[in-house]
Fold:
Amino acid sequence: MTDERFWEIVDSVGWPVEDIDEAKVEILMNTAPAEVKEFRNELDERTSRLRELFSEAREDMGEDFYVSGDGLDDCVNHIVGSGKHEYRVHVNNPEQIINTYRNKSFVESFSYAVPYTTEYEKLGADYYVFRSDRYVERYDEIARNEKFSEDYRRKAMFMKEVLEDFPNISGMDSYLQRHDMFATFSVTKGEKAVLDWMYQTEEELSDDINGWPVRNLVSDYRTYYIYNQ
Structure:
């Protein structure tokens, strides 16, 4: 990847941004997988260089203060994310990296807006169909287990039915509404209401589910598929 192309992608993000997920999807939609891999490698090289310069300047200046690994990572990523000019200013004046870090003049974290190549599959419906199918049986087992209360089993049954149709859930809100499954989401309607309901219902059923499969599924869906519409 050329230096020019690297900074072109950086500038396209417009860092800092309010919605990191949206920025990530924009990169996915406008950058080829091989180029995204190269971009991440180039980002790692530049942030590593800033870390080295930070350590050298700190030693030269005789500065002895606590350095948070996470904080420094956010700082150097912010410097790169701010563009070619800011990066060069800090490379040419390493003391400025220390000032930026100590003054907390950075935003967490430009690296979150940079996708991995594995995330391309999340832009299409097939990914969500495959993932949701894997969880249907878990909720079906709860729905059929009479040791649970009727209300508990009922929620599991509807979760199973939503997952069977996921991500084609348009109209599912009215279906759940008819069966009084939207008590806490009476104001919100549509796809967002269904996603919110799935998110909270899994939390209510979490003692009998291993991990948070639906929460992760919904989070991915909101991040990638919705932005791709």
Summary: The chain has two domains: 3-114, 124-228. The chain has eleven helices and no strands.
